[in-house]
Amino acid sequence: xxxxxxxxxxxxxxxxxxxxxxxxxxxxxxxxxxxxxxxxxxxxxxxxxxxxxxxxxxxxxxxxxxxxxxxxxxxxxxxxxxxxxxxxxxxxxxxxxxxxxxxxxxxxxxxxxxxxxxxxxxxxxxxxxxxxxxxxxxxxxxxxxxxxxxxxxxxxxxxxxxxxxxxxxxxxxxxxxxxxxxxxxxxxxxxxxxxxxxxxxxxxxxxxxxxxxxxxxxxxxxxxxxxxxxxxxxxxxxxxxxxxxxxxxxxxxxxxxxxxxxxxxxxxxxxxxxxxxxxxxxxxxxxxxxxxxxxxxxxxxxxxxxxxxxxxxxxxxxxxxxxxxxxxxxxxxxxxxxxxxxxxxxxxxxxxxxxxxxxxxxxxxxxxxxxxxxxxxxxxxxxxxxxxxxxxxxxxxxxxxxxxxxxxxxxxxxxxxxxxxxxxxxxxxxxxxxxxxxxxxxxxxxxxx
Length: 449
Ligand SMILES: Cc1cc2nc3c(=O)[nH]c(=O)nc-3n(C[C@H](O)[C@H](O)[C@H](O)COP(=O)(O)OP(=O)(O)OC[C@H]3O[C@@H](n4cnc5c(N)ncnc54)[C@H](O)[C@@H]3O)c2cc1C
What we know:
The protein has about 450 residues and is α/β, with parallel strands linked by helices. It is about 40% helix and about 20% strand. The strands form 3 sheets. Strands 3, 4, 5, 8, 9, 10, 11, 12 and 13 form a 9-stranded mixed beta sheet that branches. Strands 6-2-1-7-16-15 form a 6-stranded mixed beta sheet, sandwiched between helices. Helix 10 packs across helix 14. The protein starts with a strand and ends with a helix.
């Protein structure tokens, strides 16, 4: 039986380890946290809202605990604010299948224990570079799934594929209980995004928390140095919550009544930091000359804005497991590692990376066109506007379809015409007129008040 080592017990490492174990490999997993540490003394590494392809792999591996308890994320609403305080357009789209955001601490705790129960070996240690070399010597293949920790830097940044060399946002996450399970007239439980041009994005994700169950994960993606970039001084969850209240009051005041009752879900349920979106080479050569490969955030590190990191890590885990099985008895050499990653990147990973990067930049003209043409989607009606909104919402689960539509105005026009059965210009003009009418009514109401 071929021996495989996995370093890191986040989503990507554990799914890779389980997939390999199920395929009959002798699997050793190295983690610097015990299952208990994950559960009670860790911060969640992110909200990890996952779409159907990722959830399907969890079901396939029998790791779908909480799938029926967590609030199903049926769709998404997005308000686009070109200037602070002004909501210009909104979208209400549905996913084909519900997404789920389950506390990664619950999952890593359970999946670590389950790996041992299924015959995997779990070693609790902080793996150093020298130790990694020793582990690689004992195994046919070693896969590093250490997130963005130091071991990631063994894998050189790929400058051709990495679009940025510095963070595009300062990121904060606060998990709260209290607010109602739906928001802003959404006819279903869904993600809400306030896209505030020049300020950043404030995203509310229905979440399943370790202790509290149904709750909300609030994500703040602040443009560096902008008015939302105030979380840097937070030293506790309560500090982060106070910043969250301030941002909502100042930049998304329409959500303030909904947020009024929010309380911190647990003292560790928050994060503040930043991410430089990075793609790494899939091979690290150790001092001995041995090679190791990587999966998850270690391989591709996303800004969280478009909810792609955990999804990508899961699909990549599945891809690597299949490539290992297909390799038979042949060696897991550097050429195989490169080929395995390149095939994943071309067919899958690059689209998720591009989608995230598109959202980090000002909205494209094709994106604006789609937003105008879908205006009036309400998540209920079955008309052309709704079909466009559903296409956009669903595109987070299928970046390969959404990226071309957001970057190619000709394609965007064709999508609008197919969905609405009318000319793209007519559909966009109608959306623009309705938005203008809504703005006018709001102004008149404000003057009368
Ligand atoms: C605020 C925020 C919101 C997010 N929201 C989403 C979302 O909605 N959807 C989505 O898909 N993604 C989201 N993400 C991204 C997602 O959380 C990550 O992509 C995912 O959790 C990464 O999993 P991983 O297993 O690759 O790495 P990690 O979760 O970082 O796990 C790595 C593990 O390796 C261990 N480790 C590190 N070094 C060593 C060592 N030397 N020895 C032993 N063990 C080691 C660490 O302790 C850790 O347990 C979000 C991220 C953030 C920050």
